Amino acid sequence: MAETTDESAGGPTGRRSDAITFWQGVAIIFGANIGAGILSLPYGARNGGFPALIVALVIAGVLTTVSMLYVAEVSLRTAKPLQLAGLARKYLGETGSWLIFAGVVINGLGALISYASGSGAILADLLGVHETVGGLLFYIPGVVVVWLGLKATGRSEQAITVVMLAIILLLCGWTIVGPGIDAGNVGYVNPYFVVPIMNLAVFAFIAQYTVPELARGLAAHSPRALPGAVVTGMCATGFLLALIPFAALGMMGPDGVTEVITIGWGQGLGPVAYYLANIFALLAMLTSFWAIGLTLMTNVFDRFDWPGEGSPRHRFAALALIAVPPFLIAAFGLAGFVSALGYAGGFAGAIMSVVPVLMLRRARAVGDQEPAWQAGRIAHPVVQATLVVVFGLAFLYSLLTAAGLLPDGWS
Q1: What is the mean pLDDT of residues 136-151?
Q2: Please, how many CA atoms are within 13 Å of residue 299, restricted to the half-sphere of its CB?
Q3: Which of 15, 131, 179, 252 is the most exposed place for a label (fewest CB within 10 A)?
Q4: What total number of domains does the chain contain?
């Protein structure tokens, strides 16, 4: 009988229930990225303009993808199916493990806070309920799928991603054919604001924590598909991250966009579009909640050596740790939607993009096995140094934002 030791404890899995397809892997990355970040980008980019947003998306997208591919190689060099915190502990020791765990938690909790806040606002507007009740209605299906695990998450992400794409392509086409795009609304640019837009762009792309889960799901039957799933998921993410601000900013201009873009955008197109836009927003946050919630939970298992299977008590405790604090913070109005994303992007981006560089170097020296795929030219020292510098500056930006030391308009 095949061994089925729990993956969080570092044992072999080999369980058919863990296996996912290439497109489910793509959907997990896409679903993790297409969440609160995409809903806040038009508002966050309103001062810099669409060209500044594109520059920020290209820089953040390319470097984050490179960092994810480093994590992919590290995962493929490691015999045991570990999460980011476990990989960091194996290759960088306890300090590295706690740093990457902090990055995962800060990024993940920042996202979940924004989902509770954003979903509560949308459902309050759609259903006429209190925002806290709206956030609770969103949280229930989110928590249920995370509890069920990787396979349920992959299937759910794949199904809803198709619906999301159909809705957003319809809305963008509706915008272009209907009210139209004002060239002036998408043509203005203020390069001064590229830096603050970068922090939101980093958050929108940051999905390194999903890669070990994908490696676990693909390793048994198609490990070489892992980098392809990463790149495909990130390219699809980049396309949508550019398309929605183009349509929304192009139609409404910088003064018309709302903090959660689907509210103002949908109202501008009419009642039917309003409901479609906000259904898209809810689905986007839900898919991201699933991917982020699952990886947060499995990283808790890894970091504290809790059993991920066969112990409902530990599973419930991990789920409570990752779901309850964000909900309460949002319910008491302690963090705004865009501000939560900006802080999370800077703090987590530095840790989760820089630490993989160190893990890759160490894994190449002392890894368990020859990987089915290697990063190649993108692991050149110049590329690694560029990644460290850019995301290190993003971290500095977040520190200065928190201290209130930035110029007007940057915070």
Answers
A1: 84
A2: 31
A3: 179
A4: 1
